[in-house]
Structures are given as structure tokens and as C-alpha cells.
Design goal:
Elements: H1 3-13, E1 16-21, H2 52-57, H3 59-75, H4 80-94, E2 98-103, H5 109-112, E3 118-120, E4 123-130, E5 136-137, E6 157-161, H6 170-180, E7 185-189, H7 200-207, E8 211-216, E9 226-229, H8 232-244
Parallel strand pairs: 1-2, 1-7, 2-3, 7-8, 8-9
Antiparallel strand pairs: 4-5, 4-6
Helix pairs in contact: 1-8, 4-8
Bound molecules: ligand BJW.
Ligand BJW binds at residues 22-24, 27-28, 33-35, 39, 50, 104, 106, 122, 161-167, 190-192, 194-197, 216-218, 220, 231-232.
Length: 255
């Protein structure tokens, strides 16, 4: 049997579905991934932008970079992959199953597509916090007038995202680990699977007995049972149509 048919069979049988997404799922919405030739970090050092040390050394540069990304995310529209994952959640839950979407993305597009059971492992770009007090605010969807922008308690605003060297939100990690207990099928979509602890979830799920599937335009280091190669906005609607019928994919997606 082809990988696609094996995955369709596993999805049909699964009572608990967990999805782990990364920046690749938003590429078809026009947002850039991190790594690779079209990535945000092409020609840049991630440590000069996505660490607390970078913010301490040059808060204006880091604030401007994240503000530009915040506005890009707010201006983007969920694509067929986001829509398919929202539909997958509805289908699994309506059939009495369990579902959780773990995303490394900070762009908010999964929720805007209608996903409800979402855990943002690396925080959110639309929420910022005072770097001194930690108090969170949701800035207006317009460019900041100063970089760094002043926070509500006398510090500077920093994005409420998880930088390298920072720990992931405890609740997010707990939710991810709890899901491994009931997960029969893990879909790993659009992530290079090199950033921990998110990348470790793949091996943990397999160890706990789940079937693991990668959906990506190229193979990554993730050690999975099956790979479905292609854009997520094509592969996922096709998979949904195969498992749940012709009206379950996104109407705009081909394949
Ligand atoms: C498509 C597509 C299409 C394109 N369809 N696919 C264990 C071992 C080694 C190191 C560590 C370890 N544990 C912890 C660490 C340190 C570190 C780490 O992981 N380092 C590695 C890089 C080596 N981790 C941490 O520091 C984490 N904190 C932590 O663990 O705390 C405790 C601790 C600290 C220190 C030491 C030990 C323990 C925090 C990690 C936070 C990551 N934060 C970032 C930035 C968030 C803010 C922001 O948005 O700027 O999160 S880094 C960046 O990478 C971002 C992403 O969420 C993350 C993952 O990237 P992602 O999503 O996979 O994107 P890409 O671009 O890499 O890949 C895109 C993929 O899409 C590609 O595969 C394409 O092929 C594919 N694609 N189009 C389908 N249409």
C-alpha cells in the first residue's frame, strides 16, 4: 500500500489525533519560514534576533523585526492547510474522538481558521509584554511609533514569544505531554523538526504507540513512520477528502 493510503487508513482508525505544526504551514499564506533560502534567518544569525541576549543588546532592532512580522501575520489570511486542520478537528471531535493542535507558530492563523483545541508552544506575536513586569498587552494592529515601544510598567515591550534559551509555557508543555497518552496518530506538518523540546514530541509519540506522519515539501530529520511529500495546502485537503469524503477538503485546494 502507498504511504498516502496507509496514512488514510491510520487516520480513519484513530481515536486520538495530535497535530504538530511549524512555519511551513503558513508559507502558503505568504509568511516566510525561518530556515532555508526564503527564510527570515537567511543571511542572519538567529541568535542576534531570537534570544533574550539579542533584545538586551539591541532592543530597537529586535522590536522592529518582530513588529514587522506581527503586521505581516495580522495581514495574512489562513490557507487551505489551516482550513483543513480546523476541519480535521471538527471531524474527529464529531466522531467522538480527541484532537489537539500543537503549534510552534506565533502567527495566530490556526485559530483564525477555526481551530479551537490549539496550544501555542512558542507563544504569540500579537501579544507583547513589559520586559520588566511581564504584564501583557495586545497592541493595536498598526506599526509601533517607537522601537522599542514603552511597556505599561516602565519597561520595554517585547513579543510574548519563546526565544532560544527560554522555557516554554508550563501549561503548553503539560498539555502536549498529556496528549501523548491518548494520541494514536501524530501529524507533523511544515516543521524542520530541529527545535527542542517540540521536535522531541515526535519520538515521544512514537514511543507511546502513535503512528507518526510527516507532511512537508521535503524530508526532515524527524523519525516518522510515513512521509507525505508536498505542500500542506494540497496534501492535507486531499487526505481529508480521502478519509471523510468529498466535501471535507478546502474548496480552493486542488490535488
Ligand atoms: C513546508 C511548506 C509547505 C515549507 N508545506 N511544509 C535539546 C537538544 C539540543 C538543543 C536543545 C535541546 N533542548 C533545548 C535546546 C536548545 C534550543 C534548541 O532547540 N536548539 C536547537 C536549534 C539546537 N531550544 C530552546 O532554547 C527552547 N527552550 C528550552 O528548551 O528551554 C529549556 C532549555 C534551554 C536551554 C538549553 C536546554 C534547555 C526554546 C525554543 C524556542 C524557539 N523559538 C523560535 C522563535 C520563536 C519566536 C519567533 O517567532 O521569532 O521558534 S526559533 C524558530 O524555530 C521558531 C519556530 O517555532 C521554531 C521551529 O521552526 P519551524 O517552525 O520548524 O520552521 P522552519 O523554517 O525551521 O521549517 C519550516 C519547514 O516547513 C521546513 O521543513 C520546510 O521544508 C517546510 N515547508 N513550505 C509543508 N507549503
Amino acid at each position: 500500500m502507498e504511504a498516502f493510503d496507509q496514512v488514510a487508513t491510520a487516520l480513519r482508525r484513530a481515536r486520538g489525533v495530535v497535530v504538530l505544526t511549524g512555519a511551513g504551514v503558513s508559507v502558503e499564506s505568504g509568511l516566510r519560514p525561518f530556515r532555508g533560502p526564503d527564510g527570515w534567518w537567511q543571511g542572519r544569525d538567529a541568535a542576534s534576533l531570537a534570544t533574550p541576549e539579542a533584545f538586551a543588546a539591541d532592543p530597537a532592532l529586535v522590536s522592529a523585526w518582530y513588529d514587522a512580522r506581527r503586521l505581516a501575520a495580522l495581514g495574512a489570511v489562513p490557507n487551505a492547510a489551516h482550513e483543513a486542520l480546523a476541519q480535521l478537528e471538527r471531524n474527529v471531535v464529531e466522531a467522538g474522538g480527541r484532537f489537539l493542535l500543537l503549534t510552534q507558530n506565533v502567527d495566530g492563523l490556526h485559530r483564525r481558521a477555526g481551530s479551537e483545541r490549539v496550544v501555542e508552544l512558542h507563544g504569540s506575536l500579537t501579544v507583547w509584554r513589559d520586559h520588566r513586569s511581564g504584564r501583557r498587552v495586545t497592541p493595536d494592529p498598526t506599526p509601533f511609533t517607537a522601537h522599542p515601544a514603552p511597556g505599561p510598567d516602565g519597561g520595554w515591550l517585547r513579543p510574548d514569544v519563546v526565544w532560544f534559551g527560554e522555557v516554554l509555557p508550563r501549561q503548553a508543555l503539560d498539555a502536549a505531554e498529556a496528549a501523548l497518552a491518548w494520541c494514536d496518530l501524530l501529524l507533523v506538518v511544515g516543521t524542520s523538526a530541529v527545535v527542542y523540546p517540540a521536535a522531541a514530541l515526535v519520538g515521544q509519540a512514537a514511543w507511546a504507540g502513535a503512528v507518526t506522519v510527516e507532511v512537508n515539501v521535503e524530508a526532515t530529520p524527524a523519525d516518522v513512520d510515513h512521509r507525505l511529500t508536498g505542500p500542506a495546502g494540497v496534501v492535507l485537503p486531499r487526505l481529508l477528502r480521502a478519509v471523510f469524503g468529498p466535501n471535507s477538503g478546502h474548496p480552493l485546494a486542488g490535488g
